[in-house]
TrEMBL record:
This is 1-phosphatidylinositol 4-kinase. It is an enzyme of class 2 (transferase). GO terms for molecular function: 1-phosphatidylinositol 4-kinase activity; ATP binding. Pfam families: PI3_PI4_kinase (PF00454). InterPro entries: P4KG1-8 (IPR044571), PI3/4_kinase_cat_dom (IPR000403). Keywords: ATP-binding, Kinase, Nucleotide-binding, Transferase.
Amino acid sequence: MSPNLDSAIKSQVPALLLRRLFGASRRDEAMQLSRSPATAPVGRRRVFVQTETGCVLGMDLDRGDNAHTVKRRLQLALNVPTGETSLTFGDRVLENDLSFIRPDSPLLLTRNSINRSCSTPCLCPVSKDFEQKDCSGLVEMLGCSSSCDRVKRLVDDVVIAIRSGVDPVPISSGLGGSYYFRNIIGDRVAIVKPTDEEPFAPNNPKGFVGRALGQPGLKKSVRVGETGFREVAAYLLDHENFANVPATALVKITHSIFNINCPVNGGGPAPAHDQKQQVNSKIASFQQFIAHDFDASDHGTSSFPVAAVHRIGILDIRIFNTDRHAGNVLVRKLNGGTGRFGCQTELFPIDHGMCLPENLEDPYFEWIHWAQASIPFSEEELEYIRNLDPGKDVQMLRRELPMIREACLRVLILCTIFLKEAAAFGLCLAEIGEMMTREFRGMEEEPSQLEVVCMEARKRVAEWEPFSATAEQEEDIDFQFSMDMLGEYNDVIRSPRFNGSGFKGSSFRSPLSKLVEGVDEGNDGHEDQNESDRVFYTGWNTPTAPSNHNGSATKIAMNRSADEQLPSSMCFVRLSDMSADEWKVFLDKFQELLKEALQERARAAAGQRMKQRLGTSCKF
């Protein structure tokens, strides 16, 4: 039975108190809620503030509002001392200026006390006296643009279905909470994944809890609550639907089916019959449902189109996908017809929540073992790669997803440069993937060939004269995860074995010697890119973005105990702690070293082929 959407519901904040705080009468509220964005008063913006335990509050900001007025309102509404909270927007901790916050942006309110348990419920008192009707839309798109037209149509279908009594269906598989939303005839049209129901998030319905939003998640470089916008980023970066990523957007969505582990009035989970009556608002990813026959793990890969595998691989390399297993490649059989590439199967990549990490980790590319990945790129694919512009991609993501972190954008830039250089040099998809993948030797994890080049580039940046004088005075890192919160990350970075990753005084051997070891058969002499292309890359810092290198403005406290719940992944090189100037120099050094590495790889492969032709018995 669908909930009565017109009935009174318990708000996640004291409604009457908020009305006094916001200075709005009932008539003013009704007029404002009836306005479309085009007719809203100039300077007024609607934002969504989410607490680290998942509560979502939508509020309208006037031109004169700043972070301090928002925090004062939230302090009284949520009963949280202002001195123990931070209002954050991506990398930035908001202070006085909210002018750069776009309408419909999600903000995060976090508590700074490191001794607080992650399972602490919201301190928001709720009683029957504080009830209001949910006057906002059932589904509101956050930061949508013309690229989301397909999603807008799906949203309209879902809203009509909900109002007609067609309920969504929970998905039992997976570690996080996800739901099928249907149209009016009952067909699945979208998959919704709330950010606060991700693995280890506060409201995970499958028991995988223990962390607050914004803390390290399943992978340390992907924070809890931030996989949703990564799903959107993958769709936005799939230009012209090159890889077939389903249409995806970030939404604020309201329904009683969503899970709440800690009700806003404290205590344990609410009884089932009460949960059905309580309508919960969530920030979530909203992705088009793709009708399919099976996934790649249930079917032999020999029938997959070469072009489809290449296109998915090109996307995975650009976004440094750490979770491309066969289960998140959907396969649709085209009985009696042919697909995009003249084949009877069509592939759809999904589940991109673990892409664009904040640090280089060990990616996972299932396709690296498929025969199609060893076939050279077609001219059409090479042309697509040549036309990729990471500078424009970064500007687009900052415009569409302004909450995205600078470190994620740096990973995108680095991997796009790597893809363009490697493809121009003549490497196939499998060879490029191998250079990005780590190896285990004995019981130790070795850095990938890509990471080794980055480590040497960081070393050269540290030794570069303008930076060497100040490098020794900057041991503490205030950008992204603080050094004392990195756990075993910190140990690896400071380890003498890998202290060539940008720290002065390193005795680490040349990375180019490692690239020769264990190289598989590859391509010899190929055309190099001209010097002008390499110089052009150095401008990919996109200085139009707001500066995120002020330590006091970007430091976010973390709960250290929560960071120790999962095995740590090793971090051999960090990109997030470089200043803008250092980042430009790093890209320049990286491209120089990468070209050398590719040439060294070709020479080693040629020597290996010559040895195989001569045989081991030949002596000179």
